[in-house]
Write a structure and sequence with these properties.
The protein is 85% helix and 0% strand. The longest helix is centred in the first third of the chain and has 37 residues. The chain has one domain: Methane Monooxygenase Hydroxylase, Chain G, domain 1. The radius of gyration is 17 Å and the shape is elongated. With 87 residues, the protein is mainly α.
Length: 87
């Protein structure tokens, strides 16, 4: 348990930040799942449109350093490759 006022405040801030970051990660996962679902459906046009919106979300979360920029790039690359592989 935190003993000083400063440590107690930092503990409170950590809880708040953790909740915010968890929410942002959830948004990221939802965006990725939406693209994967469109790919599974086989609709290339819809998948491409959803992918564009998801790229914005992925980049925003990477810019906030909630995920690493390389992880964001990996997700975008794999989703893009999956869309291109659709017939």
């Amino acid at each position: 348990m935190a003993n000083t006022a400063q440590a107690r405040k930092r503990a409170r801030q950590a809880v708040k930040l953790n909740a915010h970051n968890s929410s942002q990660r959830s948004t990221l996962r939802t965006a990725i799942k939406a693209v994967r679902k469109a790919i599974q459906a086989g609709d290339k046009a819809a998948a491409a449109q959803i992918f564009q919106a998801s790229v914005s979300t992925i980049d925003t979360i990477a810019d906030k350093k909630i995920i690493h920029k390389n992880k964001a790039a990996r997700h975008k690359s794999r989703l893009s490759a999956a869309i291109k592989a659709l017939a």
